């Protein structure tokens, strides 16, 4: 109830206890409980508690659920429980890097949601208020997960926004209700136009006007947002804060793909340096949260932080700062976030390798200097050792190539000044070099 229900508020504690009571005599319920158990372990065992034995248990419970799931014959009993079973299985598969199977079970859940006709207001009106609200939360749960998959795996989303946010339900704690509604509002910004632009390699719909408008939507009303966040738990705040920054990064990447960015833009959303500024604010935000409040969100929050960190790394590599002192501040913020992300047990080898490659690339740009040193500024090698990994094409950021194109087009990005024999610059250069070298040693 602490680690799963606030982010997936559909099956209540009372229902679960009833299900557990009859699971020995009801195969469908037993199959569901396996999935529920696997998902609960997946979202509540993190850090040092996420041992290899725990991961194996999660996979075994998931497999038991799949093997015992009743297939859809001519007479098929579909229910809220059955839809949530597929969502729980999806959750486990995402953490186990089973992307294709995870997509299959998300679509399975969506099929049941459509069979339940949750999107039909007239049909839903015949239900009791609490049951109607619960089914609305189920619908939005699938909507959020499907939108995330659309971005992560470049897949089409089929669920439109529901006609209403979940109605008030006295049985749901107000904090859970408010937090869930806030995350829905964020994911509603991933509308059809946004997803079409993301999937369209040409990005025909992405203009400066669109970027500014979407950025304003994401910024919202700072005072109102602060009041709403104050009523939520730190776990909910972590999800909302990091998701918002992730979405801002996606908008920035779309703008970059259309060469709409400038190092001199007065508008943050159109500035080449936006990810650098983001690294500063994200560091402040993460520092105020516990790892538990962040890691409880599982593989989805790991992926969001990976994409933010990967984008920041590309900007550090391809958009040099005007001074060495500024470079040192940028590197320090980046390494703080990188160290934080690399400790996530859900971070798979491919994504870990991508981040460490870019860390090593930064290190080659700042070899320790004894007297007069220079930055080699070598081209980024996009053909990493993980290129044969099936996940590689999905996870490898397109940002680096786009930044290189922007640098060529604009010709106004200031070059990184080379350190001379003066003590101050040399000391700063070597400070950067040692920070990077220490980080590489600590994380490889």
UniProtKB/TrEMBL annotation:
Keywords: Nucleus. CDD domains: fungal_TF_MHR. PANTHER family: GLUCOSE TRANSPORT TRANSCRIPTION REGULATOR RGT1-RELATED-RELATED, TRANSCRIPTION FACTOR, PUTATIVE-RELATED. This is Transcription factor domain-containing protein.
